[in-house]
Design goal:
Blueprint lengths: L4 E4 L5 H12 L3 E6 L5 H7 L4 E5 L5 H8 L4 E4 L7 H15 L3 E6 L14 H15 L4 E6 L1 E2 L13 E3 L5 E5 L7 E4 L1 H15 L1 H4 L3 E4 L2 E3 L1 H12 L3 E5 L12 H14 L13 H6 L6 H15 L7
Length: 313
């Protein structure tokens, strides 16, 4: 049986790296794109079996041609750096021309399209635009919509998911989400890879044109803090309040944060819009997920230590 090749872009990202690790371990050939061979994840990928890396920008059509050459499968998670819509359309065109048989695109909803008066989030609506283009050109594709990353939490003063360390040793998470409104959660590094690999195994016949909510827990902010507290063995409190920006943030991200505050704070819109529910579909793909409590106990302290924090010592 011929070994299948999976083409992956932005291979050092949480979603893509998760798939690269799992796919290479079970014998798929992974051809991964990255902008630069820098950082711990890039070094890890270079040392994995069955992984070849291409370095460069996705605006380079020759690089993209090499990426998809003789690849049967592709996992594409575009980012907001650069013209995401133009890059997303160009990748889809190249994949179709190369004959990719199953294209899994990491998309997100455009809440402005539901006719409810909800705002469109700039970094999500661009993905939805690309998704619609993929459908229009007839590329055989499946679309995964990811929940909130467990890995977003940090005690560093970043907006929205700062788990602030208090003087008494407890933590406090302040965000605009309603305390008792359920939200979908995903450990991207641990669980995207196995789930997407199962989609590939099931095949395009089962998943052609389908949207899948990729989230394995649905928890309210209060429940998240309770799970965090159990994992850490410390008190963790949730405070519903406006997003606080205490550090410099990338261009365009403020508009995304303002939109998030309106969409999920003021309007309390469903995270995936009106069409998708979690976690039932995700759990059919992969049962071995890492939940918030396990993440808080096993991973959060390690990530904090890597960021120079010492509270766990």
């Amino acid at each position: 049986m011929q070994r299948k090749t999976i083409a992956i872009i932005n291979a050092t990202g949480r979603q893509a790296a998760s798939l690269a690790r799992v796919a290479s371990a079970v014998g798929y050939h992974v051809r991964g794109h990255l902008v630069k061979r820098e950082g711990i994840v890039a070094q890890e990928l270079e040392n994995l079996p069955n992984v070849d890396l291409l370095e460069g920008r996705l605006e380079d059509k020759e690089l993209v041609k090499k990426l998809f050459a003789n690849a049967q499968l592709a996992f594409i998670n575009t980012t907001s750096w650069g013209d995401e819509v133009a890059i997303g359309k160009s990748l889809a065109d190249a994949a179709k021309k190369a004959g990719v048989q199953h294209y899994v695109y990491s998309s997100m909803p455009d809440h402005g399209a539901f006719g409810k008066g909800w705002p469109s989030l700039p970094q999500w609506s661009s993905k939805f635009t690309v998704e619609n283009y993929i459908r229009q050109i007839g590329l055989p594709a499946t679309f995964v919509y990811t929940g909130i990353y467990n890995n977003n939490f940090t005690s560093l003063p970043y907006p929205l998911f700062c788990m602030e360390l208090r003087p008494d040793g407890s933590f406090e998470w302040k965000a605009p989400f309603h305390p008792d409104r359920p939200l979908p959660w995903l450990d991207a590094e641990h669980d995207v890879g196995p789930a997407v690999l199962q989609i590939f195994k099931d095949g395009i016949r089962k998943w052609s044109g389908q949207r899948i909510a990729l989230a394995f827990e649905v928890l309210t902010p209060r429940q998240v803090c309770a799970a965090f507290a159990k994992g850490l063995g410390r008190k963790v409190r949730y405070v519903c309040g406006p997003i606080e920006i205490k550090v410099s943030i990338p261009n365009g991200y403020r508009e995304q944060l303002d939109g998030l505050q309106l969409l999920f704070g003021k309007y309390q819109a469903p995270y995936f819009g009106l069409d998708l529910q979690a976690p039932e579909e995700a759990l059919k793909l992969w049962e071995g997920f890492r939940g918030i409590e396990e993440y808080a106990r096993e991973v959060f302290p390690l990530e904090e230590a890597a960021n120079g924090r010492t509270w766990m010592n």
